[in-house]
Fold this sequence. Notes:
Elements: H1 2-34, E1 38-45, H2 46-62, E2 66-73, H3 77-89, E3 97-101, H4 105-110, H5 123-126, H6 131-136, E4 138-139, E5 142-143, E6 146-152, E7 154-158, H7 159-165, H8 173-185, E8 191-194, H9 202-213, H10 231-245, H11 258-266, E9 270-275, H12 278-283, E10 294-297, E11 309-318, H13 325-336, H14 338-348, H15 361-366, H16 370-377, E12 380-381, H17 389-404, H18 410-425
Parallel strand pairs: 1-2, 1-3, 8-9, 11-12
Antiparallel strand pairs: 3-11, 4-5, 6-11, 7-9, 7-10
Amino acid sequence: MNSFFKRLSAVIRFAIPVALCLCLILAVIIPRLDASAVRVTLLMQALEAAQWEPFVQEFNEKHPDIELEIIEGPNASNQVEDLYTSSFLLGNSPYDLVFMDIVWVPKFAAAGWLRSLSDRISETELSAFLEGDINGGRYQGELYRMPVRSDGGMLYYRTDLLAQGGYQPPETFGDLLEISQTLQGQNLAEWGYLWQGKQYEGLPAMFVEVLAGYGAFWVDPDTLEVGLDLPEAIEAVKFLRSTLTEQVSPPGITTYAEEEARRLFQNGDAVFMRNWPYAFGLLSAEDSPIKGKFAIKPMVHAPKQSSGACLGGWGLGISSTSQHPDAAWEVAKFFSSEDIQRRFILSTGYVPSRRVLFNDPEILAKYPHYSQLLQVVENAALRPPIAQYAQASDILQRYLSAAITDQMTPEQAMNKAAKETRLLLGR
């Protein structure tokens, strides 16, 4: 009997420390399980998602209480937009953040799919970004998108060909036509001017720059006034049509997107080209026939008018259905911060949305043209930030395409485009 109690006493002496250790372990582990990392998700084009992956890892390391996950989507931006739209229409989007093209903002905001960011950031902080990028992220006075990277249309020109012809870079539409025809006549180039004439979103993106250059407009977002049938807008269409009738642009220009224009220009077959900043790196490649023989400038314009660069670019908004808006905001701040933008730009060659980075020594050492790029993107021409933008763009694409392919006169096409746009907007 005594031996039994001795064994029981020994077991108790052993069990008490073990029990205390288990209690201590549970006291530490259970709170950690309760405070597990908040999961934040966003959908992004697959190619860009791969470019952001190192920064996602860095964010997760610096924010152990937040787990950021990027869902890879199609590379076509319109397909990504469709996926976001479908997820919201189903009633409970799985995405906490929306990686948005600038033209999506009014549609998504008007539908109630985004949370306002206006109370999360001051106007002083916003002043560090390009004005056009911030304005493009607003809808009815509220901010819905933090800009991550910018974009803007510009004019590329052959410095060597202009020097041979004794010309300075053109300032007006008339200059561009005159220089093109002269250099073509001297057999220095087959074509004068390349642009995006295919019936797709790139067509109105290009056209808003020509409209701005003529002092015209598409839709006034404040009044919903439509300006497509005004004389200045019709003149803008006549300019594009004249590049074809005067054989300054190739007949196939009405089927060209960005890459068709870029390849022809890079082969040395044209004097001028309208395109986006991405083309600069490709044109500067070691195997490029025109490496070191081109430069960029703001788009040309009519006399006594000013140039406009169609503003593109991408940014982050917070989904209205997100259960973790504060965590999502931490991601938006991180992606749009100066340090992350600097390193992302250096690794990808995209255009920053923070003004100071255009003159950053490290960036200029790798991309010397960025100081010129600032002048281009500061002359922003926004596509109209209206909720019905997608439908308005479709209308303009159809009638502008009809005008430049000579199926309608510029007057007929713009009158019909204006009429349909007014019906769309309830004017």
